[in-house]
Write a structure and sequence with these properties.
- This is Beta-lactamase.
- This protein has 280 residues and is α+β, with helices and mostly antiparallel strands.
- It has 8 helices and 8 strands, in the order βαβββααααβααβββα.
- Strand 2 and strand 3 form a beta hairpin.
- Helix 2 runs antiparallel to helix 3.
- The longest helix has 18 residues.
Length: 280
């Protein structure tokens, strides 16, 4: 959401995908050293870690080396918060692509603010440009079947875009479009990914925290308080050190924003370490 730490705003709709199930676990040593080599072992590792944490979390991974999916406790109907901004960006790019035009200088400025600093006012402007109708059309066209997109720009209203609901499956599918898809031209996909690769450092928790400097990460996080726990969500693409995968997580922290960051940071690192080799 917002601009840096806990902030202001975030919307979509999704379905099913062929998956190889599994889950991850705890341990200070890399997952490879801990013998996390199969989906079942990864599931166990994640389960062990979450048994030590308050709140809940779930995730989905696509390993691009094999095309296989791994799901661990993936929740449904969770508020997206700012992760919906990836769909807003794809929709904006698609509209201009269909017109045979590039983004205007104003649209580029809004897109940069929306993705790199999670600016909600910039998002409001692009949501109004795209329209709720077109956002939903694009969500359907790219295969989001577990997502419900809202389009209000009234902050935290029931139909505010940040209160769109989705799942890790659909968030991964959204990222798949930028990494593997043909829905947008290659230059437009590269532009979107360049924004996600240059998110302000205070917003790179989850996938972007604690990985080796040689690893390339493109991401968009979303967060916000709810009466039953702080939400911390994220989606992105990781490449380097022999790995290439899309990952999305959705979580609820009963102990606040900072505690939730620690949880999702560790979950993402467990997955990264386990993917030193393709999962069987």
């Amino acid at each position: 959401m917002g601009t840096s730490a806990p902030g202001r705003r975030e919307v979509v709709r999704a379905g099913s995908v062929g998956i190889a199930l599994g889950a991850l676990g705890l341990g200070a040593a890399p997952a490879a050293a801990a013998g996390v080599d199969t989906p079942a072992q990864l599931t166990a590792a994640l389960d062990r870690y979450m048994a030590t944490r308050a709140g809940n979390a779930g995730l989905m991974v696509r390993d691009n080396r094999t095309g296989r999916y791994f799901a661990w406790r993936p929740p449904l109907n969770r508020h997206t918060h700012s992760t919906i901004k990836v769909l807003v960006l794809i929709t904006t790019l698609k509209i201009m692509q269909d017109r045979g035009q590039g983004l205007t200088s104003s649209q580029k400025s809004l897109a940069s603010r929306m993705i790199r600093s999670s600016d909600n006012d910039a998002t409001d402007a692009l949501v109004r440009f795209a329209t709720l109708r077109r956002l939903r059309i694009v969500a359907d066209q790219i295969g989001l079947r577990e997502t419900t997109v809202h389009g209000s720009t009234v902050f935290r209203a029931p139909t505010w875009w940040g209160h769109s609901t989705s799942s890790p499956r659909d968030l991964v599918q959204t990222m798949n479009q930028l990494v593997l898809g043909t829905y947008l031209t290659s230059d437009r996909r590269a532009y979107a990914r360049s924004l996600m690769a240059s998110v302000t450092p205070s917003q790179t928790w989850g996938l972007g925290d604690g990985l080796p400097s040689s690893v390339h990460v493109e991401l968009k996080n979303g967060w916000g308080p709810r009466s039953d726990g702080y939400r911390l969500n994220g989606v992105g693409h990781v490449s380097g050190q022999g790995r290439s995968f899309q990952l999305a997580f959705m979580s609820r922290s009963h102990n606040g924003y900072g505690y939730g960051q620690e949880t999702v940071n560790r979950l993402c690192r467990i997955v990264f370490d386990a993917l030193d080799q393709p999962l069987a």
